[in-house]
Request: fold
Amino acid sequence: MAINKSYIIASTLKFS
Reply:
């Protein structure tokens, strides 16, 4: 589930 976590982090950074 590392990819899933990475995706969430990227989404958060983009949203931030």
